[in-house]
Amino acid sequence: MLSTTAAHEPVTLENCENEPIHIPGAIQPHGALLALDGAGVVLAGSENFTAITGIALRAGDNADPSLLGEAVAELLEEGLAATGPWNNSVETMLGDRLFDVIGHTQDGICYLEFELRGSGIASFTKFALYAQRIISQVQLRDDVDLLLSSVTDEIRKLTGYDRVMAYRFRQDLSGEVVAESRREDLESFLGQRYPASDIPAQARRLYIQNPIRMIADVGYRGSRLVPDINPHTGRPFDLSLSTLRSVSPIHCEYLSNMGVQASMSVSIVVGGKLWGLFACHHMSPKTLPHPVRMSFQVCSHVCSAIVERLEANRHSEELHRNNERRVALVRQVRESEDIVASLAAPELNIASILSCDGAAVMLAGRQQSLQGDFARLAARVVSVLDGREEDIFQTDKWDHGELPEDARYCGVMAVRFHRQESGWILWFRLEQVHKIRWGGKPEKTVALGPSGARLTPRGSFDAWEEVVRGRSTPWGESDLSVAEKLRTDMAELCLLRAGEVDRMRQRLIATLGHDLRTPLQSISMAASMLSEGHSRTSTLQEHINYSSSRMERLISQILEMSRLQAGSGIHVNPVETDLTTLVQEIVVETNIAYPGFQIDLSLQPAVIANVDPDRYAQMAVNLLSNARHHKLHGSPVQVILEQDANHSHLRVLNQAAQLSREQLEGLFEPFRQVNHSAERNRTGLGIGLYIASAIAEAHGGSIAVDQTGAGLICFTVSLPR
Ligand code: BLA
Questions:
Q1: Which atom from ligand 1 is nearest to the alpha carbon of 16?
Q2: Cα separation, 299 vs 304, whole angstroms
Q3: pLDDT for the residue 462
Q4: CA of 198 to the centre of ligand 1 (A)
Q5: Which of 52, 367, 376, 395 is 20 to 30 A distant from 273 in Cα terms?
Q6: Using one digit for the tens of pLDDT, what is the confidence trace for 650-687?
């Protein structure tokens, strides 16, 4: 065996991937090779060329048709005439022996490879029939694993290898034997894992260019190309597409450590990427004739196409399902003022759009968790991610280090949708302790191998079980795609809201200028009267108190408003509250503040619910204030409190001017009253109902308005108890 690295630095643990396997300068000796330039002049031939083919041709000779025989001469002529990439083959007798002559072009060089057809090969009709059967069978399968296992069975019948495996690459490029058909006396490799470095990157890349690799006898002595440098270019010959290419000696060593004498593999390419391999082993030397290899390749192609279809179907079904939920979630958020609360709403939320064991949303210092309390975990993750550039992050092995109780959540996916306000959506997955059956201990060792003191592939392939901790189920492509899309949607929504906030702010400033002027004027007037020694001090005091509390109310509404508009919502602290008493107190206070304002009460006794009492009071006050301003002159306001199994209902009714449906719907939008109410609400900004609806929403409840034909308008707040 030749060391393919003779002209290069020796292969070590570090440079395994640097071995230039495409330019070994030699071929396997079960065939012979000729490289010709565009004029049909021999650039190089394998040392064994004449011995194998009986044709006397050397570098520098013109490839005379009379020497090559008619069939090969025609093949060569076709190859030389080809303008683009070309390959073809013929079956021909050279002397008294049957050959497959396989031609291809690369970099303007025409390569002819002569493979001796062994004796005792069954009729090719049989192989064609096998291939046909495999293809018709695989088309019926709708499950990738079943498909691969029936194909490995059939391929073993087709090719006669002792072991045929379907080897599937995982995300980390390690591989797993997912289907196997083997000679009965051989131990099974099914389910075993092999590290990525067993098939280094350049070897994987080569599979995309050239789907087949056959090693006829791992103990071979390679046959050199003479010369091994192209005299026209001064560069070695690129044998990437050759069928006889001499393979990596390290890999041969690996196979013989496994007890394997001959191997063959065919790539399974899905979506342009190397998805897996059919890998065959034989315990004695074995050459698979070119036509059978081609049947194998066709089967593998069909199989790849079906795997691609099945995977694409699965992927698109999953994506479709998750996307539908995502679209609904975004709609829900769009219709709500409170981004955080609506992303974490009870029914439809971030945890329902992809599979996870918990989720959290953070925005402007607010946090809400789903399926557990993730406040601390989320804060920690975000503190790490906030400093980074990227807006999307995922891992299946987050190391929580000093937070042992959180360490179980090692799957983290995070998307940032708001940079300034640190808006993040996070999903968590629990640790999945699992076992991997490695085909031998995955460490590489440096030892004295047949090719000297250097890295040797491991000598033992005894299955070795590794218990993997600190890992979750990895996030899949469709998880990532849904998360990415949600991020974009939310970022857009925030941008849109920012624009709205800007417009709102301008209107607010204009309104403020007007509304704050009145109480300010009263105060300064009262103050100047006081300083002039006015006698009715108590009335003036009252005046000042009234005006400054109005200002306070305006200012607190503005603050509330800007928080709501920033999307950070209203924060509530629910505690068990006696609503009957609370509403009663509010009504009494209102009566004191507005003598003559008639309120008819109908309160069900002992309505108890989990609410934030301050917020609830604020909401009730806003509703009463709205009723007071818009009721028809002289008509009373009715307040009803009742409950059913799950909800408390607060109703505020008053007789009012008939409103259109559109006006009714607009009542909860800020500033609407400013726009179309003739009689301006002179004490507020017209955002009382807007805030009331945000409070109801923050409690997980709702607010509704209705008007009967008789003009009776009814606001109903329903909160879960
Ligand atoms: C190539 N390694 C390969 C190939 C396979 C494997 C299938 C393709 C060639 C072939 O079909 O034989 C790996 N074979 C496996 C595995 C199983 C199997 C995992 O049967 C499991 C049952 N390999 C090493 C180390 C190096 C290495 C340490 O273990 C490098 C220092 C290299 N493997 C290596 C190289 C090739 C290879 C360079 C390409 C061989 C070539 O095409 O020249």
A1: 31
A2: 8
A3: 65
A4: 5
A5: 395
A6: 999 999 888 888 788 788 876 654 333 434 444 455 67
